[in-house]
Amino acid sequence: MIGRLRGVVAEVAEEDALIDVGGVGYVVRCGSRTLGRLPAPGDETLLHVESQWAEATGMRLYGFLTRDERRAFVILQSIQGVGPKAALAVLDVLSPGELAQAAAREDKAVVARANGVGPKLALRIVTELKGKPLGDGAVAAFHATAAPAGPPPVSAAGEAVAALMGLGVAEVTARRVVDQAAIRLGEDAPEAALIKAALQELGR
C-alpha cells in the first residue's frame, strides 16, 4: 500500500494530479483545495496518500498535503453514506481543524456547504465526529470554547469563487484558480485582485 509520494508534478487536471516518481507516473485523486496548492508542473511536491481498492475501479490513490487531511479523509469515510467523493468535498470547504470545530458546536450548516452533502448527511457527520480527534492539530479544537453559532464569515477568496461561478465557471475549477491566485497574491489579497488573477489563470 502506498502511503506517501515525493516526486515532480507532471500534470494537474480537474480532479487529479500526475506525480512523476523516478520516471513512474502516479495518478493521484485530490480535492480542489489540494490541487490548487500544488506547485507548478516541473516542481517537486510531497503528498500523503491513502490507497483504496474497489472492484470497479481497481487501485485508486487519494493525495493530501498534510497527515491531518489524510486522517480526516479516512475518518469521514467511516460514517455511513460518506464515500471518497463526499469526504474530499467536505475537506475542500473545511480543514480538519475547522471540521472539528463544526462538529464540536454541531454546526451542520457549514458542513452542508460541501458539494453533494445534504442537510441529513451533514447532521450525521457532525453528530458522529463530535468528540473524535481528526488530526494532531485538531484535538484542542474539540475542547475549545466555541463562539455562538452563526453564519461563517465569507472570505475574499469565497467571494471570488462565487463571482467566477456566476460567470459560468465550474466550482472545482473556480476554487482551484482562486487558490492559485491567493498563493501568488497572498491570503490578504482583496476580492477584486483575486478575481482578476484567477481569470488570468483560466486564460492560460
Helicity, as a percent range:
40-55%
Please mark out the parts with pLDDT under 50 across 5 or more consecutive residues, or reply none: 137-153
Provide the CATH architecture of the largest domain.
Answer: Orthogonal Bundle
Number of helices: 10
Number of domains: 3
Over the alpha carbons, how many angstroms does the gyration radius reach? 17 Å
Tell me the number of strands.
5
Mean pLDDT: 83
Distance between the termini: 36 Å
Within CATH, the superfamily of the largest domain carries the name 5' to 3' exonuclease, C-terminal subdomain
Outline, from the CA principal axes? globular
The CATH class of the largest domain is identified as Mainly Alpha
Order of helices and strands: EEEHEEHHHHHHHHH
Strand order of the largest sheet: 1-2-3-5-4
Q: Indicate the CATH topology of the largest domain.
A: DNA polymerase, domain 1
Assess the beta-strand content as a share of residues: 15-25%
For the biggest sheet, the summary is:
5 strands, mixed, barrel
Structural class: alpha+beta
